[in-house]
Structure formats: structure tokens, C-alpha cells
Design brief:
The chain is α/β, with parallel strands linked by helices. It has seven helices and eight strands. The strands form two sheets. Strands 1, 3, 4, 5, 6 and 8 form a six-stranded mixed beta sheet that branches. Helix 5 crosses helix 6. The chain is elongated and about 60 Å long. The termini are close together.
């Protein structure tokens, strides 16, 4: 098995309330998880996240993806896992003796997440950039409160300054010591070429790799045992 990066995509966090433009991963962990591995106290109202005025005592409604999903697992690992400890979501569905959290709603797919947040003034959620098709506020993110916060712009995602940037990989089944299927190898080389990355950019789903990232993926392909 061999994998290489094909493109970058941000997992965007968005919400409805006015008066909030940025959050830290620490704050998200406090709002989204039961484990709070980052050490903060539970955030259950918008006031707990720094919103003032009429919104301060309003509950935070969580909109997320039902596990297991690629976006969901990436967000869980990046936001909730910390210091080697596995983080767990506040439950959007009952599981054995654990009841569902009334302020959490899980969708089975990414397609309705932006609409769910748009329709609920107290909601916050996450999804991929390609699925933000409603008028929601996309939040800038930092690792910790007080750190510089980054919006999911092209530069910030490509450089991984935006905390929820991720590389999307493709995998091939290559036996050690055996040559990769030449058709598959040529396809991979095309995707990683300048022309192939232009195709990636034109599809407007993934951001193309930077030159150094494409070179690193080619190196991984060339040195595969």
C-alpha cells in the first residue's frame, strides 16, 4: 500500500451568532466534546465562548456528522484528541446507557450541515469548503485563545496555517518489490504534475498542492519499496 497527497481541503467551522468571528480549538473542544482533553471547562452557552448581550445565555446547538465519516474523524482527531488522549463528541444519538444530548444534532452526510446551521440561530457546525452553500459565518481559528487566528483562505489552507487544513490522499495497492501498475503510476504522476494540479484547481473542490508538497509526493512515489 502506498499513499500520496493529491490536494488540500479545509474543514470549515461556521456559526450563526453575531459578535463572534473567531474561536480556538480549545474553545471548540470545550463546546463539542464530553472529554475536554484540552483542559477547559464545558462551554454550553454562547456566553461561555465570549459572546455578550442577548446571546450570552443562549444554548450552543451542535450540528455535526454521525460517526464514522472522514470529515468527522479528521475534526475529532484534530480538535478533541490532545496529549495522546482520545476525545469524544457530545452524543447526537443514544448509545447504550448514554442518552443523546438534546443540543446536538447529527447528520448522516455533509450536504445539509450548512443549511442546518443557517436555519438555527444558535447553531455551530463544521463541514468541507465545497459544501458551504448557505449564508453562514465561516469562523477564523487558532490553536489556543490569544493565538493568531486564521481564516480558511487559499494561502492559509495551502500553508496549513489554518488549523483544520488537511491533505487528501489517494492510495494504491503496490506489493513490496513489485512494480506499480504503469497505468496507475502514470495517472498519479499526471495528478501531481502542474497540468494535473490545474485540473484539481478547476474542479473547485480541493485546493492544489504547493510545488514543494507535490514534489514530496512524487518523491514518495519514486522511493516506494
Amino acid at each position: 500500500m502506498r499513499c500520496a497527497g493529491a490536494g488540500r481541503v479545509p474543514c470549515e467551522v461556521f456559526g450563526s451568532p453575531r459578535g463572534i468571528d473567531k474561536l480556538s480549538l480549545d474553545q471548540l473542544d470545550a463546546a463539542l466534546s464530553t472529554t475536554r482533553n484540552r483542559g477547559g471547562k464545558a462551554a454550553r452557552t454562547w456566553g461561555d465562548l465570549g459572546v455578550t448581550g442577548d446571546w450570552a445565555d443562549k444554548p450552543i446547538h451542535i450540528v455535526g456528522l454521525q460517526p464514522w465519516n472522514g470529515f468527522e474523524e479528521f475534526a475529532r482527531q484534530r480538535v478533541l484528541d490532545h496529549n495522546g488522549k482520545r476525545g469524544e463528541w457530545r452524543p447526537g444519538a443514544a448509545d447504550g446507557s448514554t442518552p443523546a444530548d438534546p443540543n446536538v444534532h447529527w447528520e448522516k452526510t455533509v450536504f445539509n450541515l450548512a443549511k442546518d446551521v443557517h436555519d438555527d440561530p444558535y447553531a455551530i457546525g463544521y463541514t468541507g469548503m465545497a459544501y458551504v452553500d448557505q449564508g453562514v459565518k465561516v469562523l477564523s481559528l487558532s490553536d489556543h485563545v490569544g493565538d493568531a487566528a486564521y481564516a480558511p483562505t487559499y494561502e492559509n489552507v495551502a500553508s496549513a496555517a489554518y488549523p483544520l487544513s488537511r491533505v487528501t490522499y489517494f492510495n494504491v495497492n503496490k506489493r513490496p518489490g513489485k512494480q506499480l501498475d504503469p497505468v496507475m503510476e502514470e495517472l498519479i504522476r499526471f495528478i501531481l504534475s502542474k497540468q494535473g494540479q490545474h485540473v484539481v484547481a478547476g474542479q473547485q473542490v480541493f485546493l492544489p498542492l504547493r510545488s514543494g508538497q507535490a514534489t514530496a509526493s512524487l518523491r514518495a512515489l519514486n522511493t516506494a519499496p
